[in-house]
Specification:
60s Ribosomal Protein L30, Chain: A; 5-stranded mixed beta sheet; 25% strand; 2 domains; globular; Phosphoribosyl-aminoimidazole Synthetase, Chain A, domain 2; 7-stranded mixed beta sheet
Length: 313
């Protein structure tokens, strides 16, 4: 019998089925007295997650960014985290000092305490960040309903453009290049956007790509999603794509590493969500709507491919 190669989602589903977890989500919650505790773990691996231009402190910071982003999409407040490190045998003191600097920078930036962890030998840099937080009421991936609007915390395509610049020497205008590369080297999770979570019917962070994130909300909600491409693309992406003979829609929908929040909001709550965003100085972009369906995503009349960044893919 020939064994079939599995991708990341299929591996996660096997373990979820084994442990009786019916709904796949970015985070897990446990009721503890009057509080709801939120748990999240994420692993960064040097080979797949760290461009050569990224310094050790930036890699360390990114490992915490990815977890903070998932908590933010659920409106959760981080409390503490534990860091487990896999380091090559030949690692230097300067390298470890720089990693420690990155963890310290991120802890201060995002208001989370690093309380411990573990260290072991590995063939590549591995950082596992396990974080705990609290939330009052958490939106899941399965709550989208027909009539809801689809909203995001920012525009898309910059990170994929930045990776093309860093890894493939793509050409870009200086201002766009600075924005795109910065979004890769020092990504910013939308932590404050989590304050709007009480208005969400469903939510997810977009680090695996916008298309795959939209499909998660559509499939788990049992609905279809319609997206306005012009409402979601970042400024300058179209010009960058033409300059480098790339597909702008691929950069926008399939790139990943964006760390934006993607959510659905019932129309009766939209005005309040927009007002709350304005008062908090946050961007909230309406990019589409939810209709009856069976878990598909469309851009205009074209069905979007269900793909994004997946380990083992």
């Amino acid at each position: 019998m020939t064994s079939r190669k599995l991708d990341e989602r299929e591996i996660i589903r096997i373990f979820s089925s084994t442990f009786g977890i019916r709904e796949l989500d970015d985070v897990a919650t446990v009721r503890f007295g009057k509080k709801q505790l939120v748990f999240k773990a994420d692993m960064l691996v040097g080979l797949t997650d760290v461009p050569p231009q990224m310094r050790p402190w930036q890699a360390a910071r990114k490992s915490i960014v990815s977890v903070v982003s998932d908590l933010s999409a659920k409106g959760a407040r981080p409390i503490a985290c534990m860091i487990s490190l896999g380091l090559p045998r030949q690692v230097t003191k300067e390298y470890v000092d720089d990693l420690a600097k990155g963890f310290k920078v991120a802890a201060k930036e995002f208001g989370v305490r690093i309380v411990g962890g573990d260290t072991n030998e590995a063939t590549d840099l591995v950082i596992d960040c396990s974080m705990i937080g609290t939330v009052d009421k958490m939106p899941t991936r399965a709550g989208a309903r027909p009539g809801d609007v689809v909203a995001v915390s920012g525009k898309f395509g910059l990170a994929a453009s930045g990776l093309a610049i860093l890894m493939k020497d793509a050409k870009a205008e200086p201002a766009f290049k600075e924005r795109a590369v910065s979004s890769v080297i020092e990504p910013v999770p939308r932590q404050k956007f989590g304050s709007l979570a009480k208005y969400f019917s469903s939510s997810i962070d977009s680090s695996d790509g916008l298309a795959i994130s939209l499909y998660e909300l559509a499939s788990q909600g049992g609905v279809d999603i319609q997206i306005d491409y012009d409402a979601v693309k970042a400024q300058g992406v179209e010009e960058f794509a033409r300059q480098n003979n790339l597909s702008a829609q691929d950069l926008v929908f399939y790139g990943g590493e964006e760390y934006e929040v993607v959510c659905t909001i019932p129309k009766p709550k939209l005005a309040r969500a927009k007002l709350a965003a304005k008062k908090a100085g946050l961007d909230l972009y309406v990019i589409g709507g939810v209709t009856k369906g069976t878990g598909n995503v469309f851009v205009s009349d074209r069905k979007l491919e269900n793909r994004g960044y997946l380990h083992f893919g």
